[in-house]
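Aim 2, interim progress. The first record below pairs a target sequence with its structure tokens.
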Amino acid sequence: MNHFELKGGELACEDVALSTIAAAVGTPVYVYSSATLVRHFTVLRDALTGAGLKDPLIAFAVKANPNVAVLRTLAQAGAGADVVSEGEIRRALAAGVPPERIVFSGVGKSAGEIEFALKAGVAEINLESEPELDLVSAIGQRLGKRAAVAIRVNPDVEAGGHAKISTGKAENKFGVSLAEAERLYAKASNLPGAPPVGVACHIGSQITDLAPMEAAFAKMRALVERLRGEGLSVERLDLGGGLGAPYFNAPTPPDPADYAAMIARTMKGLGDIQFAFEPGRMIAANAGVLVSRVQHIHERPEGRKFLVLDAAMNDLLRPAMYDAYHDIRPVNPRPSDEKGGEPVVYDVVGPICETGDTFTRDRALPPLKAGDLVAFMTAGAYGAAMSSEYNSRLLVPEVLVKGDQYAVIRPRPTYDDMLAREANAPWLS
């Protein structure tokens, strides 16, 4: 569910018309719904606790949407943070996420990032290799801090909506094998600076079938039992994220209640253990839209129509990078649209000087004209987070809505702002 509906004949976010925001802030612009963010988090939390998973740590994947106001909205609802860089740790802390609810994941953490995480007191550092284990232990020993670590396991289970977001196969760069995990866990137990608290896995993103998750989780349960059988303490089992969001044309993802029931069934009888989860997309995707304005329609003699927008691939990269589908809706549908008027087939494109700057081809949409506003739905995850200044286009602003209020939570910079970040070489003066 999301809170983007027609009100008074136009598309609104909660109780604010998107046209009102577009008029005040300009386009393109990302708009987020506070109610949707909180609802998705609480639905997942209630499903997990309702299935008997006591006090789960739900750490929102900051990479999905790192805006501090978004993170603060979720933190106030009780969410922790799953982070993959020092910058994301700093964002989570700035948003008020307690350090004991921050999980530090990711391949290739630097010594400086690990030191920062240890000094901040994060709940857990997920280790992805033996060299990383040795580095964390050495830094912890030097600082006189014992780093609570979890060994990330690659269970060799394929899942995810695209090859580039599948992370659980043996050929993927993430984690260690099950056999390595047992050895490294025992090794960490004897290291002075990196006592292990648990094991972790994350097999991919935009997963719409529970079967691969259940297969991976069964392997993780068996690993916990083997480690405990060797006399090693395992306090936490981090099952990652990956549950899909509804992208309108894609398979409907499992209900959180079914997801929670599967976990409870798979882990039944495991004993006292805390479960951790790292959802991102399922919480943020449907909580955001990208509003754009039609520049013009370019009609070729052979009949192909290009709907040229002021948004581009630098604002929303997912279609170019992942062939991702986003539903596109008129913000101010005309009465004929609402009555099922004849759709028009467009190629929807942006102004960037690349053929890859194409959002979709041969998409049937209501008739549109220059100046009309459209909204890319399900754009709250990996939208603004992946935006750039490619072609020296200004970064897209972000707006957060709560009820009938809205606030700009990342302003659009000026061209002077953009140029001021670059310095001249002295020999070019």
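The second target in this work package is listed in the same format:
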Amino acid sequence: MYEETTFIPCERGQLPPGPWLVFAPHPDDETFGLGGTLLLAREAGIAAHVVVVTDGAAGGSGTDLVERREAETRAVGEALGLASLTFWRQPDRGGPLPAALMDELHRLLRGFRSSTHPTSQAPASVFFPSPFEPNPDHRACAAFVWDGLVSYGYRGQAFSYEISVQGPVDRLIDITAVAARKRELMAMYLSQLDQNAYVERLDALNRSRSWSLPMDATHAEGLCRWPDLRGRLADRLRERLSRYWQPDALPGTVPQAWWQRLFGGSG
């Protein structure tokens, strides 16, 4: 049987190379999922560009909800020191993203210009939500970005990140030093605090993510690198899941027909 290190890191992971391009499904997911990592990126001088995909209209109440959520994200983005913040304003829970957005995604992959970097800098690392997230917008965002990376022929590093639940990861970023600051930033999303106990529950998720790290690590955020940017995301997901099942090591417990239906091959 595979050892634990096949499924979860036991050492602190390095920050991916910059610049970064981060796709957040809703106005807050960049902080809920990657807030600690983004704070560490700012300290390390890594430029982070964030794209908020949907307008967040389904996550609360009030006629000005979209405007309030966007204003909150701008304030948090300033605190995070983001290099740029872009709002695509797609319908919240609107299903698959329109194909017309693919050209915009490709434009972002070609690079960014800013006052500090007048020449175009292509992102060295791209982040999208874990395809194992339960929220449909999170999964739609993951699928769309994946298709964009594949169709563009992206040659940088691609990572999925956790927002609300744990999924497969192969890199843990120790955010212990900035965990308190992340809680403060999450609390700036006032429009969301009556929807869920986000600050407490996501802090608990970060706490639980540190269990395989050294004892002095109290909080971590999980990343999963996807090195094979070819073909369908579904095929890459099957490859990830197949690590958890070894029918040759569990004789008689996993029927071959079941294995073939789930993973598309024999054990």
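The chain has a mean pLDDT of 91. This observation will shape the mutagenesis plan for the next reporting period.
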